[in-house]
Amino acid sequence: MTPVIPDTATIKVSSQPSSNAPPAIQADTLSRVVPLGERQLTILDNVSLTVAEGETLAIVGASGSGKTTLLGLLAGLDRPNHGSVAWHGETVSSLSEDALAKRRQGAIGFVFQSFQLLPALTALENVMLPLELAGANDAQTRAQDWLNRVGLGERVDHLPKQLSGGEQQRVAIARAFVASPSIVFADEPTGNLDTDTGAEVVELMFTLNREQGTTLVLVTHDLELASRCHRMVRLARGKVI
Questions:
Q1: Is 16's pLDDT higher than 60?
Q2: CB distance 67 to 235 below 8 Å
Q3: Rounded to two decimals, what is the model's pTM?
């Protein structure tokens, strides 16, 4: 039976973390404009938001509303034309590419709709990757432990093509959390999964989030998933509404 998605006006979200917590993310007047022929297309228009330490935030909106662009700016994967992004009080949107990449190591985790696993690496090697980039000398042990935690302890030697979509997303979640990041960004984490598998992946992601005390920012079109977060931000035509 198809689940009934509640009207947005009646969605209840859990209480927010204490307002005394220092902000994990501070975005001020973000704008993103791209050329479109002889014109310019405004994807994001003067967006500001604060995400508290340990908070879970859902970014929702129709296709083309700018939500994935906003996530990319918050995560430092793209640059704003105007405005700034800070993580834990440090402005990162003005850092050089090398400095930003170094700043992300071990501090930021990512979960993507398309999994983004390296096809030539095994599940274990994919999870080890962020630890190896950070110079950890116990990468294999920690990666094995995280694959055990996400229920894939027996699939460590499998390539992504040998795993189901749900299993690939579990590997991606293990990779996102393995370095104990302070912030995890997720872009449509259940978008390529069936309903039952998506529900399992969501439960796993929120469980790990609570256990690790991370800040979680996710983009989703699923209002049931969004309602599990402390807060929702809705975008329309590049503006917060």
A1: no
A2: yes
A3: 0.86
Q: Which residue has the tokens 């938001």?
A: 49
Structure tokens at 38: 């002889």
Quickly tell me which residue has 């990512």 as its tokens.
Answer: 110
C-alpha to C-alpha distance for 106 and 110, rounded to whole angstroms: 11
111 within 8 A of 191, measured Cβ to Cβ: no
Binning pLDDT at 50, 70 and 90, where does residue 36 land?
Answer: confident
pLDDT at 17 over 90: no
Rounded Cα gap, residues 161 and 164, in angstroms: 8
Tokens 């991370």 correspond to what residue? 214
- Helix crossing, 139-149 with 123-133: angle to 10°? 130
Output the 3-class SS for the chain.
CCCCCCCHHHCCCCCCCCCCCCEEEEEEEEEEEEEECCEEEEEEEEEEEEEECCCEEEEEECCCCCHHHHHHHHCCCCCCCEEEEEECCEECCCCCHHHHHHHHCCCEEEEECCCCCCCCCCHHHHHHHHHHHCCCCCHHHHHHHHHHHCCCCCCCCCCHHHCCHHHHHHHHHHHHHCCCCCEEEEECCCCCCCHHHHHHHHHHHHHHHHHHCCEEEEECCCHHHHCCCCEEEEEECCEEC
Banded pLDDT at 90 (limits 50, 70, 90): very high
- Whose CA is closest to 172, among 203, 194, 135, 146? 146
Radius of gyration of the chain (CA): 18
Distance between CA 166 and CA 134 in Å, rounded? Answer: 27
